[in-house]
Amino acid sequence: MPVTPKALRARYKSGAGVAELAVISGLSHGTVINRLHEAGTVMRTSWQTRRLREDSPARQRLAARLRTLYEEQGATLTELAKAGAGTRRAARRLLIDAGGSPRSAQQTRRMRAAAAASKRRGLALSLRVRYEAGATVPELAKECSYSVPTVYRLLRQAGTRMRPQHRHGPASRARKRS
Length: 178
Fold this sequence. Notes:
Radius of gyration: 32 Å
Number of strands: 0
Order of helices and strands: HHHHHHHHHH
Helix content: 55-70%
């Protein structure tokens, strides 16, 4: 990077801070400030620099990604903080900046419950298709890692017409021979 006052001014106006310019140029902090003054630069305060950085394209992309997670996948503010926002407060601010609106905990629970119910309905229908194709309930339970009673319940919810149960083992009473 050229170390001319005009070059320093251009980088400073694009959002770089004095400390960044000192590292990039190899000049001391005071020298960078003097060169910026030579170029007629109006200096920013630290909060103005932070505000300028908050409007960066990277921040806007993060905010858009977090909004997608929040609205389409039902993520919570805590999950958004883990996904890159840092804190719940920062996640909320990014969500609002991206045009989203925070929802209550109750709304989040309802949204997740509806998604889970939809997923279970899809599972129940796929189990029904496989059951009607000849698979047994214990086989389905093993494939899906569910208990046998859970598979029976899902099949009933899907409106499956069940085959008669087989009785294995000895007969409960002796059959009469004619």
